Amino acid sequence: MNLKSVNLTMLVDFYELTMAHGYFENGMEDQIAYFDMFFRRVPDEGGFAIMAGLEQLIEYLKHLEFTDEDIEYLRSKQLFSEGFLTYLKNFKFACDIYAIPEGTPIFPNEPILTVRGPIIQAQFIETMILLSINHQSLIATKSNRIVRAANGRPVLELGARRAQGADGAILGARAAYIGGCKGTACTISDRDFNVPALGTMAHSWVQTFDSEYEAFKKYAELYPENCTLLVDTYNTLKSGVPNAIKVFKEILIPKGYKPGAIRIDSGDAAYLSKKARKLLDEAGLHETKIVISNSLDEYIIKDLLIQNAPIDSFGVGERLITSKTEPVFGGVYKIVAVEKEGQMIPKIKISNNIEKITNPGSKQVYRLYDRDTQKAIADVITLAHEKIDDTKPYTIFDPEHTWKRKEITNFIARPLLAPIFLNGELVYTSPTLEEIVTYSKEQIDMLWEEVLRFEKPHRYYVDLSEELWTLKTELLEKYSK
Amino acid sequence: MNLKSVNLTMLVDFYELTMAHGYFENGMEDQIAYFDMFFRRVPDEGGFAIMAGLEQLIEYLKHLEFTDEDIEYLRSKQLFSEGFLTYLKNFKFACDIYAIPEGTPIFPNEPILTVRGPIIQAQFIETMILLSINHQSLIATKSNRIVRAANGRPVLELGARRAQGADGAILGARAAYIGGCKGTACTISDRDFNVPALGTMAHSWVQTFDSEYEAFKKYAELYPENCTLLVDTYNTLKSGVPNAIKVFKEILIPKGYKPGAIRIDSGDAAYLSKKARKLLDEAGLHETKIVISNSLDEYIIKDLLIQNAPIDSFGVGERLITSKTEPVFGGVYKIVAVEKEGQMIPKIKISNNIEKITNPGSKQVYRLYDRDTQKAIADVITLAHEKIDDTKPYTIFDPEHTWKRKEITNFIARPLLAPIFLNGELVYTSPTLEEIVTYSKEQIDMLWEEVLRFEKPHRYYVDLSEELWTLKTELLEKYSK
């Protein structure tokens, strides 16, 4: 069995059903509506997030179907009309969905996914759109922070045991790989998504044998290639590292294998890695690597490297798989327009919180790149029918401080929202995970380093087109009366 | 299809497989080992946690099976012998598992689940034991904190869209219900686990109609019972509440329905609920309830109630479903003994971190209750063969400060670890979710209020029996030489 084929149609907030029923009973099942997904701030006060989770959302939408069991369950709630239950039974997905491809750097307030379709449907899919994109974008973003902190040293994702549920582990490993991790401990993520799975030994292996030396020896005999020994079960420097050295010299080197690696999973990583490095070097094992895996995240890794801890790679668990310092990606899904007699009526939500005001209308997002440096200059949110012509100068302006204007020349404009479903038909071919990883790295390299900074990064420009800005301003004035 | 039946055998840390193969190749497949799951600290500096996730762990263990696809995948890694792959193909679960039942208050350092069995198996199941219990215990514990802060007012779980994956939402709702939430927005958790699902409307409902008044009217006509109207789409006090009052008076009251509820999802909850209450009362709608649902957790709820905000119930989303302030439950799984020639050899892990030292040997946990007050006095971890006789006085002592002793009389001793699997056979009947909820509430009521306190709760005693303490001290002395 493969998790990919699980029918999650009923993973839906109950209010999507009460509203759907309400639309149906009011004769509005053919009412067309437009929704945007966007988020309001980057986790960990970072400069950008990374889009992820689209492939799993596509799987969900492909399998949207109410089983007889579902209909029976809904009937038992004694809330819904038989007509509505029949509608659900015959449900055929018919929305248009556009989305920013996985691996793309994304920024607050821009639509990262848009939906147009019958309001019952467009509303119904809200829960899983948000769940899927929020979860994986959160982990891909966190993973990339940790990978950037490690500054070229490989990072492995080891968090399954502390993940928030099976999908948290399985898809978390996928998202972590998109963010730049080199592999995972989670075997099923390798089987189902080709995230390379790796693993060596736990403390229990060492404890099961009569001595640490014997445990290491048995392991090295069976796995002489990339042999990583866990050295902190009893005493890292007095017992673990000396026993590892002995085994590397007795078993690996005579047979022509590389002198392996040691893993330290407790104690002070800077102190122990320096002392261990010294012991290894004194034994002539200059090539033996040191792996650290004790409650790490980007903050600790940065600090360890500032202290010149001689660490070759990092295993990161709970703080990556749950994005511990900020475990929520706050993507929202808001109605932006309805159609009436074939005409689009833009909608806006005012709210008591200024930052919760939405951008009205059906939209596209353009990323403008400098032709010379290839760096991304700004994103511009336009109405869907607008085209940004990059053969002519284009003026961007701050939507709040409109006197802040800048004319852009010599640029490339690339639309970010790609068609995924049109009228319910899948029109998008998901790239392979490797392609996503490569693309993501390229796109992140096209951000100015000011945006990549961990502390107080430069706020990347996300502007509105003149036409969208005018529409929004008019609606705000109308509703504030 | 039902998520309960998904085969998650391959949701396993890869090192469980490399070690299993190592044991197999060293002729140790019949080696018996003992493991404990325990945790080291309560999230959010709380006084206790709540055990949850056992039923899903049982489902996983019942379905442990390597498919041909799994074997083929493992063969493709070119690491494992054919003999080992055949062993996996014929894998038959044969462990003994004891666990503390779901809903029980649990405390740091005591075994909450123990395993005895062939080391390959006992090791293999580590990942899912930890994942399942860690996740649901985390959410049940957080839910209970929020429910206690709400002090009798119903709390609903609304977090699916911000959950870390589908299981995070589905099983998170289950765990939240164990912790005391009255329901969830997550429909599938109702279908599969009987967690009552509830829901009303989103802002999009209000925006889809030509006016807020019309949106409310249509909704109230369809759902006159428990009619909850979302009042903050445009302007809570100037538009939302007045329109709700109008609709309650026009639609509900003439037909004899209760005058519903209003939900406020943005702005300052204390200010808006007080002003809204005043408007409702002035309109004679004293029975209309006020529901708040904007980024809540136990800290904000406590503060709102200190300010006498007239809130009748709380909807809690992302901060519950991810346990945002502390999104990791740090349960670990450690080897505590092996058998050699039929005799148990206790094992200990020393570690560079004192708090990571383990308790050796196969164990039981007794909870001692005062016969008069019914309150829990202390937990005592004993070796498995020990019995605490509650007809005689029993002396507990602090395992670190052994001069701190106390003789307990007039008490009931209840063993907490119950048999779940014996020799691989399921011997436990999972209680219904309702039974777990009732049992959990009873057990929490048996804790002193000092342990229930949010800030700096009293540290509940978890002591070692004299025999276990002596064994541990001897092993520590042996290994520190």
Structural summary, described in words:
The structure is a homodimer of 481-residue chains. Chain A folds into 2 domains: 3-139 and 327-480, nicotinate phosphoribosyltransferase (Alpha-Beta Barrel), CATH 3.20.140; 152-321, Aldolase class I (TIM Barrel). Chain A is 38% helix and 20% strand. Chain A contains 17 helices and 21 strands. Chain A has helices at 14-25, 54-62, 68-76, 82-89, 119-124, 126-150, 166-178, 187-193, 203-208, 212-222, 236-252, 269-282, 298-306, 318-321, 433-445, 449-452, 466-480; strands at residues 32-38, 49-50, 96-99, 105-106, 113-118, 155-157, 183-184, 228-230, 261-264, 289-292, 313-316, 332-340, 343-346, 363-370, 376-383, 394-397, 405-408, 411-415, 418-422, 425-426, 461-464. In chain A, the strands form 5 sheets. Chain A has a 7-stranded antiparallel beta sheet with strand order 13-12-1-5-3-19-20. In chain A, strand 16 and strand 17 form a beta hairpin. The radius of gyration of chain A is 26 Å and the shape is globular. Chain A starts with 13 loop residues before the first helix and ends with a helix. The mean pLDDT of chain A is 95. The interface between A and B is large, with 105 and 105 residues. Chains A, B: It catalyses: 5-phospho-alpha-D-ribose 1-diphosphate + nicotinate + ATP + H2O = nicotinate beta-D-ribonucleotide + ADP + phosphate + diphosphate. Chains A, B: Catalyzes the first step in the biosynthesis of NAD from nicotinic acid, the ATP-dependent synthesis of beta-nicotinate D-ribonucleotide from nicotinate and 5-phospho-D-ribose 1-phosphate.
